[in-house]
Design a protein that fits this description.
The chain is α/β, with parallel strands linked by helices. It folds into two domains: 148 residues, Rossmann fold, CATH 3.40.50.300; 95 residues, no CATH class. Helix content is 38%, strand content 16%. A ten-stranded mixed β-sheet has the order 2-3-1-4-5-6-10-8-9-7. The longest helix is centred in the middle third of the chain and has 23 residues.
Length: 293
């Protein structure tokens, strides 16, 4: 009898975890478990918001124990499972572990417009959403570090990390499916994927020998280190700056590619000037969603 496929999905608020989970449930005929659903149900029973529930959980471990108890025995399941939980990658190390990330600016817009998030508000302004996201993210990261000695922000604990900023949800789902199929076949996909439109580039686009997108590499077959990025500070938070592979990034944008695999390296790097970034966007006929300046 074949082993069941277990996929754990962690990630930022507003990153698209629920939509990805739905897509994977349909593809792999899987059952679904979601911490978010459990949290909202518990918070509703207690007459508080999920943010207040998370705050209480900082000093009351029984709340996390109540939530975590649902997931502890899932590894024994005979069925395919999709588990949407920030700590699932830790409780289910044998699963294919996916993390979704998103820029806080984009997360705010998604959450503000999501009427299905009962118990997480109500929010009266963008500023309220921003504050709630930041508070909950900090609360959960600190709590999990204290209770489990696990940093949910560390990419080392995941098999696939997708930054969904400026990326259609359908492409996120398709990438995840391809990566899971590789994993089932005993192969390893590239770990970190980001929209090429979310990357900043110092190189002048007019000087690039752009790659041909016809023979575009498939998931799991990219040249090692084809695109390297480092993180620079910006007015809006961390920004990804290309240190190698600008020609791949340019080709991806021109060819309508939604995501590219990148290697995150530690190199001192600054953002390109606003004028240079504006020229890059104009050359590639797009407008970046991330407002770095």
């Amino acid at each position: 009898m074949e082993k069941p496929i277990i996929i754990s999905i962690s990630g930022d608020l507003g990153s698209g975890k629920s939509v990805l989970a739905t897509g994977l449930v349909e593809t792999f005929a899987a059952d679904r478990y979601s911490t978010g659903m459990v949290q909202r149900k518990i918070a509703d029973q207690m007459g508080i918001t999920t943010l207040e529930l998370n705050k209480r959980a900082e000093t009351d471990k029984s709340i996390d124990d109540r939530i975590d108890s649902v997931f502890r025995n899932l590894e024994k399941t005979p069925k395919n499972l999709i588990v949407d939980s920030r700590m699932a990658f830790h409780f289910l190390p044998m699963s294919f572990r996916i993390k979704l990330e998103v820029d806080p600016q984009i997360a705010v817009m998604r959450i503000k417009g999501d009427t299905s998030r009962v118990g997480e508000g109500p929010y009266n302004s963008i500023e309220e959403v921003q504050a709630a996201i930041a508070a909950r993210k900090a609360s959960e990261r600190a709590r999990f570090k204290t209770y489990y000695n696990v940093d949910i922000a560390d990419h080392a604990g995941y098999d696939l990390v997708i930054n969904t900023t400026d990326c259609p949800v359908g492409d996120v789902v398709e990438l995840a499916k391809a990566a899971v199929h590789l994993w089932v076949a005993g192969k390893t996909p590239e770990k970190l994927w980001i929209s090429p439109k979310h990357l900043f580039v110092h190189v002048d686009a007019d000087t690039l020998d752009t790659q041909d997108t016809g023979p575009w590499p498939a998931v799991g077959s990219w040249p090692k280190g084809a695109i390297e990025v480092s993180i620079a500070a910006s007015a809006a938070g961390p920004a990804y700056v290309v240190t190698r592979g600008a020609e791949w990034v340019s080709a991806a944008i021109k060819g309508g590619k939604a995501l590219v695999p990148v290697a995150l390296v530690e190199k001192p790097v600054d953002l390109p000037s606003p004028a240079h970034s504006e020229k890059w966007e104009k050359h590639h006929n797009f407008k970046r969603l991330f407002k770095a300046y």
